Amino acid sequence: MTFLDMRGVNYSYPGYLNVVDQVDWEIARGEVHSLVGRSGCGKTTLLKLAAGLVRPDTGAISVDGQALLRPGSQLGFVFQSPTLLEWKRVLDNVLLPITLQRRPVPADRARAEELLALMGLSDFSERFPTELSGGQQSRVAIARALLLAPSLLLLDEPFASLDAITREELQDDLLKICRLAQTTVFFVTHDISEAVYLADRVAVMAQGRITHEVPVDLPRPRARELRYAAPFNALCARVRHAMDGAGP
Amino acid sequence: MTGHSVIMRLAGWALFVALLLGWELLCRTSGLSALVLPAPSVIGQSLWTGLWTGYFWPHLLHTGSVLVLGLAIGSAAGFLGGIVMGESAVLRRLLFPYVVTSQVVPKLALAPLFIVWFGFGMTSTVVITALICFFPLMENTLTSLQQVDPRKQELFRMLGATRLQTLLRLKIPSGLPVIMAGFRVAVVLALVGAVVGEFIGGSKGLGALIIASQGMMDTPLMFAVLLLITVLGLLVYQFAIGLERLLLWPHLKNSEKE
Q: pLDDT tens for residues B86-101?
């Protein structure tokens, strides 16, 4: 059952032709897909198209069978940087998607507290974002994206600026939470092992096109030891070859 | 650390007392006329008499009211103007040349014109003060609205925020440090506007009092009034700092720890 469906999608910025060029991609409900590619290959633009932040020039995008016209509450988006509001406490930052629609009720607060607890941030809900480390800020941004229980979560290199160990912890947390909620995930990254570890399927993008598609048939739930096993490394090598083959 | 700061504070006071004593001594020994440079003791006496007899109070109240009214009107107008121009690209392009031109015109040079328009008295000085406060607020508000992190704006779009919500919950709060910096500049300029406005168009107020003391060749009185203006300025400036602390404390959270 296809959940996110992109067909013949094209997008150009003024002065930059075919940033996204004739892309077809499908993600089934509950699956996790990664999108890898070199900087400037159009990954972020493709993700923004999937979010409805920009409209495709030609082609069609649908989410859960509905044509996507604008961003909505069924979509969660995590940006490259945490983009937290420095003047609001952590809890209020997580509650932002609700406070923009209506006054939060105690149940909303409970939900936000629960997400912060899942992220290991229970003790920080009354702090300000500037008092948190980079990894903690990323966790807050993920909790915020999950607040409305989106059925599709889009992430744009959310862990790029974190150290390796924090990044691995966050990857495990993300997989755990999305598995619990049956969330469909589209994860943009330039880190090959991150792409393989998270995904059921890896898309390799170059110059606006998806050039290769690598299915990841590793068992779930994934665990740390997996990273050092032969099948994992073989898949990473395959993705790497695909990226090289696609390079200029 | 604390011992060091106590010593610094003592040194500060000692310097102040030494300066005053030196000034007093200079006036008593050099035979300099009190018309040119009155001794601190003479100024103190003049200040005391003025305060005690109630001579200063109506003037102080007048300048204070001009200052507060002008600051409030000018800042509010500048803030709103900045928002309007920050939000509408069309208005910004249309009005910006006029804004720049009118900013270049020295506002105090317009005082005689305002006297023609609004007459001698409080209205002209309030208008001058307001006009002077308008620009720092408008310019800083406009700048701050245009410096909002585009990713945060994208986040608000993603969350389906309306334009008004984006303005009230994102742009103004994130621009507040820059806006408050403009307000601090406005506060200092407002005092200049009020006093100089009274030089030209007033029969009341501390500025008018300075002109009057010049006419009466009463230099100690002039110094006493200058002292009052300084105290008034410090008070308003402290108020601005306090307001800034109050509004910006989440923003300042980080720097406090460092």
A: 999 899 999 888 888 8
Q: Which residues of B touch A (CB under 8 A)?
A: 149, 151-152, 154-161, 165, 169-170, 173-174, 176, 250-251, 253-254, 257
Residue A120 tokens read as 């290991």
**DSSP 3-state of A248:** coil
**Left (φ > 0), alpha (ψ -120 to 50) or beta: where does A199 sit?**
beta
Contacts of B151 in chain A (CB under 8 A): 79-81, 83
Residue of A nearest to B248 (CA): A87
Closest Cβ opposite residue A87 in set B155, B158, B173: B173
Q: Backbone phi, then psi, for A63, in 5-degree steps?
A: -120, 120
Position A209 pLDDT exceeds 70: yes
**CA dist., res. B10 & res. A157, Å (int):** 56
CB A153 within 8 A of CB A183: yes
CB pair distance less than 8 Å for A85 and B151: no
Q: Tell me the two tokens of residue B141.
A: 């508000």
Instruction: Give the 3-state secondary structure of residue A23.
Output: strand
Is the separation of the CB atoms in A205 and A42 below 8 Å?
A: yes
What's the whole-model pTM score? Answer: 0.82
Token pair, residue B66, equals 């001009």
**ipTM score of the complex?**
0.84
Residues in chain B: 258
Q: 3-state class of A16 per DSSP? A: strand
- Give the pLDDT mean for B183-211: 89
Nearest to B161 among A53, A75, A100 (CB): A100
